[in-house]
Amino acid sequence: MERMIDIKGKVWDVVIVGAGPAGLSAALVLGRCCRSVLVCDRGTPRSWASKAMHGFISRDGVAPSTFRRRARKELSRYPNVHYWRGEVKRVVRGDNAFGVYLQRRIVRARKLLLATGVFDQLPAIPGFETLFGRSVFPCPYCDGWEYRGRPVAVYGRGSRGFEMTRALTAWTNDIVLCTDGPSRLSGAALQQLKRKQIAVRSGRIEQLSIVDRRLNEVVFGNGERLKRDALFFDTPSRPQSTLMVQLGCSMDRHGRIRCGQYEATSVPGVFAAGNVLSDVQLSIVAAAEGARAAFGINRALTREDFDGRKARGNRRGSEATNRNRHPHLS
Fold first, then answer.
1. For residues 276 and 256, is the Cβ–Cβ distance under 8 A?
2. 174-204 burial code (b ≥16 CB/10 A, e <16)
């Protein structure tokens, strides 16, 4: 364990790294639990190109930037919730607290919530990044409704391309799967697509043609053109932060954090929420995970204070106590 620098003797109940729907939701719940909360945000949301968030009841169609601004305004009502703009690049574990590096300062926290999100890896195809968030999208649940019944393309190979194509059939039947090289599809998958009259184009993509700031055509290297109104893609994403690796959190093969009850990670005192988990990638789900993590954090803090303990995290043997009798207190 590293020795940590004490800043004015303050120990925060919780430091939240990340201020998307997960982190902001957790901050609200913990603020209302009278916890001292520090929210750290470097200002690089996954939704940087999105014009509107969807599937979030009461917030459908709201711009992500507007959502974040409203959320921070709501949090400003709680004097125990504070905000720091910057990147947390390092966290160390002490005996009774975490040391969180905020540029040249170090603050101490009893619990840590990682809500740092991910970045989508965009193919290096001219026009792809320009159209991202306008008519190129990673999620049909977020943007499929606007293109229902219209001609769309799917970008992806192997199981990723197949799964995205199959998912989009809920919105439209006019789909072409573009694999930008060998499809890596199994014979069975190719037969299924053929039965659904879904064409597979394996030619290399030269660019995405743009008209009036929207997708017009997918242009292939051999000169062929495919007119489409939108393109949905499924490519790998990468975590925005390496803190989970530094702390030794258990992760799956896709680089997402594994969590147990109430979003607790394998590292005592560390919780996670949002797109850093392998779950449904929707804003409303991320917000729910943040609320669940906040519940788990507050419960752990309350038990430690009540029992007079200083240990981080939950005592696993007592996690289920009274769960059925008092579900809101368990």
1. yes
2. bbbbbbbeebebeeebeeebeeeebebbebe
Domain 123-233 superfamily per CATH: FAD/NAD(P)-binding domain (3.50.50.60)
Place of tokens 């702390």: 247
Q: Looking at the domain 11-119+237-318, which fold is it?
A: FAD/NAD(P)-binding domain (3.50.50)
The residue whose two tokens read 């966290």 is 91
Cα torsion angle, 55, 58, 62, 65, sign: negative
Question: Domain residue spans in the chain?
Answer: 11-119+237-318, 123-233
Q: Is there a contact between 171 and 185 (Cβ–Cβ < 8 Å)?
A: no
- What are residue 304's phi and psi, to 5 degrees? -60, -45
The pLDDT value recorded for residue 330 is 53
Confidence of residue 86 (pLDDT cuts 50, 70, 90): very high
pTM: 0.87
Q: List beta partners, residue 162.
A: none
For 237, the enclosing helix (H) or strand (E) is strand 237-239
